[in-house]
């Protein structure tokens, strides 16, 4: 027996919702479990009412999508008595439509929680989109500052090089006076100095 719908945690439903083909969907087996009906009976009800499930309410996974889904989660192995058909996935509207088909108190009660889970994921996606936009804006501002800083930095480096060159000139001792070429007698030096 499953949990009463009132005790069903919203997180357990949101964890079952996946993103495929740009839409948030829930696999038929998970939806059947939530509605407390066997997957086979659930799919039979859907098959009897296919007109109520346009492509934006429900679609069948491709082999590649199913293989990717199987690798991401613990789904049954096809060679071991597991699924014989590709699973159906339901959007928010399809999950609600399926609950009306089943017409059981449990399905109707749980469908409210399923819709809330889809809404919560939509809100989270909007929040993430807002954060992504803010991050992109911040990156643009940072790049603009880096460009300004680079220009400032280049000017500063040129000025600092000039300052360092001037300091090196001041630190370098002046060249001693050149000595005359040839032989100069020491007396000549003394004589020149006395004059």
UniProtKB/TrEMBL annotation:
Give the residues annotated as coiled coil. Answer: 121-148
Q: Where is the composition biased (Basic and acidic residues)?
A: 186-195
Taken from the record, one Pfam family name reads ORF6N
| Residue segments, region Disordered | 171-195
Ordered alphabetically, the record's keywords are:
Coiled coil
Protein name, UniProt field = ORF6N domain-containing protein
Q: Which InterPro entries match?
A: KilA-N_DNA-bd_domain
Give start and end of each KilA-N DNA-binding domain.
Answer: 16-100
Q: Does the keyword Coiled coil apply?
A: yes
């Amino acid at each position: 027996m499953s949990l009463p719908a009132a005790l069903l945690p919203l997180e357990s439903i949101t964890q079952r919702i996946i993103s495929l083909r740009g839409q948030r969907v829930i696999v038929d087996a998970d939806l059947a479990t939530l509605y407390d009906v066997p997957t086979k009976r659930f799919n039979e009800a859907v098959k009897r009412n296919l007109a109520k499930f346009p492509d934006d309410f429900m679609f069948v996974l491709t082999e590649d999508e199913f293989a990717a889904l199987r690798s991401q989660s613990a789904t049954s192995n096809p060679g071991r008595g597991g699924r014989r058909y590709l699973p159906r996935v339901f959007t928010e509207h399809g999950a609600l439509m399926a609950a009306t088909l089943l017409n059981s108190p449990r399905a109707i009660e749980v469908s409210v929680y399923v819709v809330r889970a889809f809404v919560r994921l939509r809100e989270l996606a909007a929040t993430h989109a807002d954060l992504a936009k803010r991050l992109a804006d911040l990156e643009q501002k940072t790049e603009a500052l880096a460009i300004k800083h680079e220009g400032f930095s280049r000017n500063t480096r040129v000025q600092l090089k000039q300052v360092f060159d001037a300091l090196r000139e001041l630190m370098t001792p002046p060249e001693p006076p050149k000595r005359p070429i040839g032989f100069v007698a020491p007396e000549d030096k003394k004589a020149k100095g006395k004059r």
